[in-house]
Amino acid sequence: MANGNEYLWQGDIRFWGRRSPVLFPIVGRLWNNQYNHEGETYELGQHGFARDCEFQLTYEEENSLVFSLESNEDTLKLYPFPFILQIGYRLRDNRLQVIWNVENTGDREMHFQIGGHPAFYYRDLDLNTKQRGFLDFGQKHLLLHYLTPAEKGCVKPEHQELRLPDGIMELTSDSFGCDTYIFDNSQLRKMTLLDRNRKPYLSLEFNTPLAAVWSPSAVHPDVPFVCLEPWYGRCDTVGYRGELKDREWIQHLAPGKSFTGGYTIVLEDL
């Protein structure tokens, strides 16, 4: 909270009980919630297991925190790769940097995806109107290509087009009939939330190859938040039954090596 305004959704099971989960070791859904690896079939639910695990605080300074999760007997049953996942938070002025570090502590190549799922309040929500605000993609004369979930939470390969002459998408209670907009191929680097008067109040900056925008307003028209999601990976394509290592947008990490990624939240009205 800053200047009397709450930015990060605080959770409410009527709409969505989570706030800003980390998605690991997969992003999105697997076809039939299963994946294949070296002759074995594993069951794994949407967005993986890390969001439901307890992390340990391993570093603390005045404006920085680091939390860690290490593979264990339970995670190895779901995902047969030893790892250490660290999530760091660094606050500087009006910017909060979120840093992911994935270390492969095993003796074979590791295959994974990781992503963020932070939810942010609409500013000055008025349920007497369908209008919720705007999302500025920071580019003029914009033609975006996006995927949407089609079956069992998985996508079909065909992209749809989103034309935005001023680079700004209006957000309404009807905007998410498609459930989720998934922008791949590094089309975006920044998304900025604007209030109903088009005043910016929050931005998300990232270098991920995919980004998603989601709100459960198709089910709950009065939902007061929208999620801006930076992803290294996405759900399966409908019908995919191949190997984990061959999934689209999968990341590969050699033994003893580390992967670093993340995103930055900027409070624009401070």
TrEMBL record:
Cofactors: Ca(2+)
MF annotations from Gene Ontology: carbohydrate binding; isomerase activity
Pfam families listed in its UniProt record: Aldose_epim
Taxonomic superkingdom: Bacteria
Biological processes, Gene Ontology terms: carbohydrate metabolic process
UniProt entry keywords in alphabetical sequence: Calcium
Keyword Calcium appears in the UniProt entry: yes
Coiled coil: none
Keyword Cell cycle applies: no
Subunit structure, as described in the record: Monomer.
Protein name as it appears in the record: Aldose 1-epimerase
Organism the protein comes from: Phocaeicola coprophilus DSM 18228 = JCM 13818
Taxonomic placement: Bacteria, Pseudomonadati, Bacteroidota, Bacteroidia, Bacteroidales
